[in-house]
Amino acid sequence: MAYCTPSCKKWTTFGVSGTVLMLGILLIVGWKGFFKSIMEKELSLGSRSTKGFEMWKETPIPMYLEFHLFNWTNSAEVIKNPNVKPNFIECGPYIFHEHHIRENITFHENGTVTFMQRRIWRFLPEKSGGSLEDEITTYNPILSSVANLVKDKHILVRKGVNFFLVEKRVKLAITKKAKEFLFEGYEDPLLDLVHKLNISGVNVPFTKFGWFVDRNNSLEYDGIFNMYNGANGIENLGKLHTWNYQTDVPYWPDSCGNVDGTTGELWYPPLGRDKLKLFATDICSSIELVKDGKFWLDGMESDKYVGTEEVFDNGTVFPEQKCFVPDHVQQPSGIRNVSLCKFGAPAFLSYAHFYLADEYYRSTIDGMKPNKSKHEMFIALEPSTGLPLRVQATLQVNLKLFNVKGITMLENMKPNLLPAFWFSQTAEMTGDLIGLAKVLLVMPSAGQYTGYGMVAIGLLISLIGCTITYRRGWKESEEETLLTQNTL
């Protein structure tokens, strides 16, 4: 066995003390930066091997899409007497599990990644409040589209369209099953008319109508995205660069047409930010969310970003929103005309039940009951990592009822905005992902506290060594002293 002399013991003690002290100081000073660099690398989509890429390529968080269809209960009375106020009853919810898969992924040297996404929906009858066989009566959406296309055409065109409507016995209100209005779709002779009208700028790509027809399992529907992958700066993670190869959409002028924000699932750490932007392909534009309080999930704190009245303002309160009003048509605040984005269909978006909209929209119909807890749009993000704890995106689709001279069934109608349905896309972090998020949040402090502990241990060892030195404790044993004396 190797023998350590008193001098060896002394310098070993102080050597260990110094090493532990140095490691502790390095942990205190450099651990946060070191861990941050590792975390940012893993959260980014810089390569296919990062944890962030794995979670983004096929979203692991359970997502649900809830549909609430509005049943027009007194359509017959309104058709007979346009002065009767339309009444609607909310049916559902019809809940679908939603799964996202990214495909055709290409990395670029400028720190962006191009991809397409496939969305898959599966009906969950056990979670739903209605059956897909439920029959729903609503204002005829294809008639609304045709009316919008021809309302400013020559009277002869309108009368020709009216002849077709009468011949085909088209009705102002139609009744279909919930599944037909949603994903299954239904055939309608009016679609043939839309195709035959061949109106410039109107290119309807489907042969059946349904709000989500041809979208389930489609790779092409949402378009082609190019976004920053975070490898050249985590603050850009998830921000879109182009959509369908364009930095601006053609439907809105000025800043309203900018492709800006994230797609809603991948976020850069929002620490210190008061506003965030979300680009929604369904409305071909961005939505700005404003920080408003905190949200807690399983003991984790996050910043809550909500959609405010600014989102659907018509420019009267927020001038920068005026470019969302085509041709500056005056309308009460609280809706957005997305007909240019939806093949000319007169679709108007709002929050569910006209939440935060001008009272006018609720006053012209019956059945609207806005509720902040149910109808508020928000996303809760952990500020240090950008991980979404909960997402609740709610929007309502409304159709414009026109008064069109030359079309018999619309000549006496009072112009109005009628709700068709509202939907809520929700996602909430669960299980292992919450555990991973908590570990990420604890690690910076854990490393520093470990450093403080090592410094304390190093100081303690050093103090012990100094005490032994002061008391001259580094001396040979009695046996070693006698051996030395006998040798002399």
Automatic annotation (TrEMBL):
Cellular component GO terms held in the UniProt record: cytoplasm; plasma membrane
Record's subcellular location: Cell membrane
Species name: Acanthoscelides obtectus
The entry's keywords: Cell membrane, Glycoprotein, Membrane, Transmembrane, Transmembrane helix
Family under the similarity heading: Belongs to the CD36 family.
The name this protein goes by in its record: Uncharacterized protein
GO MF entries: scavenger receptor activity
Species lineage: Eukaryota, Metazoa, Ecdysozoa, Arthropoda, Hexapoda
Keyword Glycoprotein: yes
UniProt xrefs under InterPro entries: CD36_fam
TM region positions: 12-31, 449-470
